[in-house]
Design goal:
Distance between the termini: 15 Å
Number of helices: 11
Strand content: 15-25%
Largest sheet: 7 strands, mixed
Structural class: alpha/beta
CATH topology of the largest domain: TIM Barrel
Shape: globular
CATH architecture of the largest domain: Alpha-Beta Barrel
Number of domains: 2
Strand order of the largest sheet: 3-2-1-4-14-15-16
Oligomer: single chain
Bound molecules: zinc ion
CATH superfamily of the largest domain: Metal-dependent hydrolases
Helix content: 25-40%
């Protein structure tokens, strides 16, 4: 079935808005996207009329954990079978909110993505990392138990051991993620907030370890994305060839310039910082994390503003991990506007800039352009004037993924 979407405004993802636009979807592909007066004859196409048509959005940093709270340890105190059931609902909710692609930076996404691809679960295309590679005592180690237990808990939840030390283990760790079906390799290059004993300012992994991870990942045509708060972690990661910096809390002038130089992408995840500051208490955030979120929150918004000002390429990510919070992904756009983006820049971060976070594994999507995947949404209202429209799933009237209609 051919679908012809006639819109008051067409937002291509990158480039200027087209007034009175038409998008034609056929066999899973976009066969036309442009001005109505140049569009092909409608023929027997089904016509959808809408205010705004734009590419399906990209969540470039989420986690399918299937837990309800702001305490990551809940994943280790729950049965993986139950967590797996819950994430199928997260997937449906994300698609309903207009997100047709999710880059899942550690969790059950590698499995969920395969079930979506098989057609048995309704959800976005999910590009998972598998587990997140961490050094011993690093951000994805579980500091409250002995190391053997920590390893066992991670294998039980994510399918493979993720704690690696020394270049050889780092290489082997990348290979273990590949055997889970990882499309991107996620590492921790600094301490974090949601872990007990490590310091967000301090770098994690030696340069030799980072080099081994990036070399192995790149050889297998995967990009490496690094969780980094502190500046030294950011600089070492860039030096090793990491292409996406997640969070980037203590980014300064020099680090921003290094990102531009390296053509690296920042995925700021302002949503989670904002959520934990406002709702962390009632969501069961552990005491250690409360201290660390207060230590990082202000620097984080300054860093995003600086990155925007310096012209660092930014892709939208929220770091949402909890069932019940999935679906609020679109709130990130407004937060990026608060940090200094124009609405059109925020939309570009949530659409056209998404695929680049996967490098060689990127699908052909994120823009409305002939020959690209038919991942398209219709929106009531004008998000170029008020981007917060995209935060409310009720405003997303139609969702097409691969040309198949899931909403509307
Ligand atoms: Zn994360």
């Amino acid at each position: 079935m051919t679908v012809r979407i006639e819109a008051k405004r067409l937002i291509p993802g990158s480039g200027d808005v087209i007034e009175n636009g038409v998008v034609v979807l056929d066999q899973g592909e976009i066969t036309y996207a442009g001005a109505a007066n140049g569009a092909p004859d409608p023929g027997d196409a089904e016509v959808v009329k809408t205010e705004t048509v734009m590419p399906g959005m990209w969540e470039c940093h989420g986690h399918f954990f299937g837990i309800y709270t702001a305490n990551i340890d809940e994943a280790h105190l729950s049965r993986p079978q139950l967590l797996s059931m819950r994430v199928t609902s997260d997937a449906r909710v994300a698609l309903d909110a207009g997100f047709t692609s999710v880059r899942e930076m550690g969790g059950l996404g590698v499995f969920l993505g395969r079930a979506v691809e098989e057609g048995v679960v309704v959800g976005p295309n999910v590009y998972g990392a598998g587990g997140t590679l961490s050094m011993t005592a690093g951000h994805a180690d579980t500091h409250s138990v002995d190391l053997d237990m920590a390893r066992a808990l991670h294998v039980r939840f994510g399918g493979e051991d993720n704690i690696v030390d020394g270049p050889d283990q780092c290489r082997a760790g990348v290979r273990r993620m590949l055997r889970l079906g990882a499309k991107v390799i996620k590492i921790h290059a600094s301490g974090g907030v949601m872990s007990e004993l490590d310091d967000p300012h301090l770098p994690q992994f030696s340069n030799e370890e980072l080099n081994a991870i990036v070399d192995e990942a790149n050889r297998m045509e995967r990009l490496v994305g690094a969780h980094c708060h502190g500046k030294r972690g950011i600089m070492s990661a860039l030096e090793a060839g990491v292409k996406t910096i997640e969070h980037g809390t203590f980014l300064d002038d020099e680090a921003a310039e290094a990102m531009v130089e390296a053509e690296a992408i920042l995925v700021p995840t302002r949503f989670i910082v904002d959520l934990l500051i406002r709702e962390g208490e009632q969501r069961g955030m552990p005491e250690y994390a409360k201290k660390k979120i207060r230590m990082t929150a202000e620097a984080h918004s300054d860093a995003i503003s600086l990155a925007i000002e310096k012209g660092v390429k930014i892709a939208m990510g929220t770091d949402i991990w909890a069932t019940g919070v999935w679906g609020r992904n679109g709130e990130e756009l407004d937060l990026m506007v608060e940090c200094g983006m124009t609405p059109m820049q925020a939309i570009e971060a949530a659409t056209a800039n998404g695929p680049a976070t996967l490098g060689p594994q990127a699908p052909k999507s994120g823009r409305l352009e002939e020959g690209l995947d038919a991942d398209v949404i219709c929106v009531s209202g004008d998000p170029t004037g008020d981007v917060s429209i995209l935060a409310d799933p009720d405003n997303i009237t139609h969702v097409f993924k691969g040309g198949v209609r899931y909403k509307g």
